């Protein structure tokens, strides 16, 4: 089963992106996410800026005391895990809805409170990392020269 992806420019190059709905257990609404498929990232993350745009307070979904230091975009960030398991809902090419439960998902926040650090953290996109590709058994097809990409999943 295939899930169509888009090919968009990011940091001067063409990258695959997935559009899906995200559901937090304690939030009773779904909200759309557009995430960069990053095969160089070990972790999946939801952008702090996308959470704020959907009026979801970041501190309400993360574990503030559990974090690890990561370097992205030339800056140090705190990678906070989201407390509860979340669900990603994709539409397949034959218009079926498929629900995937990624492993631990993170939100990146600035290590420092200066303007440059905050700007760097809040400009990071949501990312589907290798952890989700492995855990959900997803294959990625990406052909940037033709601007086509898709996920392929085993039929259940």
SSE layout:
Layout: E1 2-4, E2 6-10, E3 13-23, E4 30-37, E5 44-45, H1 48-53, H2 58-61, E6 68-72, E7 75-81, E8 87-91, E9 97-100, E10 105-110, H3 115-122, E11 126-128, H4 130-135, E12 139-143, E13 148-152
Parallel strand pairs: 4-11, 5-10
Antiparallel strand pairs: 1-13, 2-3, 3-4, 3-8, 6-7, 7-10, 8-9, 12-13
| Main β sheet profile | 6 strands, mixed
Taking pLDDT < 50 over at least 5 consecutive residues as the criterion, the unreliable ranges are none
The count of domains is 1
Task: Please report the first level of CATH classification, the CATH class.
Answer: Mainly Beta
Helix-strand pattern = EEEEEHHEEEEEHEHEE
Going by CATH, the architecture would be Beta Barrel
Provide tags for this entry.
single chain; 156 residues; alpha+beta; six-stranded mixed β-sheet; four-stranded mixed β-sheet; 4 helices; globular
Describe this protein's structure:
This protein is of the alpha+beta class and 156 residues long. It has a single domain, classed as Cathepsin D, subunit A, domain 1, CATH 2.40.70.10. 15% of the residues lie in helices and 44% in strands. It contains four helices and 13 strands. Strands 2, 3, 4, 8, 9 and 11 form a six-stranded mixed sheet that branches. Strand 2 and strand 3 (13-23) form a beta hairpin. The protein is globular. The relative contact order is 0.26. The model has no long low-confidence stretch (mean pLDDT 92).
């Amino acid at each position: 089963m295939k899930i169509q992806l888009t090919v968009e420019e990011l940091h001067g190059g063409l990258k695959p992106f997935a559009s899906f709905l995200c559901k937090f257990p304690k939030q009773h609404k779904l909200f759309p996410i557009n995430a960069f498929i990053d095969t160089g990232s070990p972790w999946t993350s939801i952008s702090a800026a996308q959470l704020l745009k959907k009026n979801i307070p970041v501190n309400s979904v993360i574990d503030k005391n559990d974090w690890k230091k990561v370097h992205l975009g030339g800056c140090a960030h705190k990678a906070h895990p989201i407390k509860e398991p979340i669900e990603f809902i994709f539409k397949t090419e034959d218009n079926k809805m498929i629900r995937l439960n990624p492993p631990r998902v993170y939100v990146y926040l600035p290590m420092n409170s200066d303007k440059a650090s905050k700007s760097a953290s809040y400009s990071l996109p949501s990312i589907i990392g290798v952890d989700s590709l492995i855990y959900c058994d997803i294959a990625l097809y990406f052909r940037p020269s033709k601007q086509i990409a898709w996920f392929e999943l085993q039929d259940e």
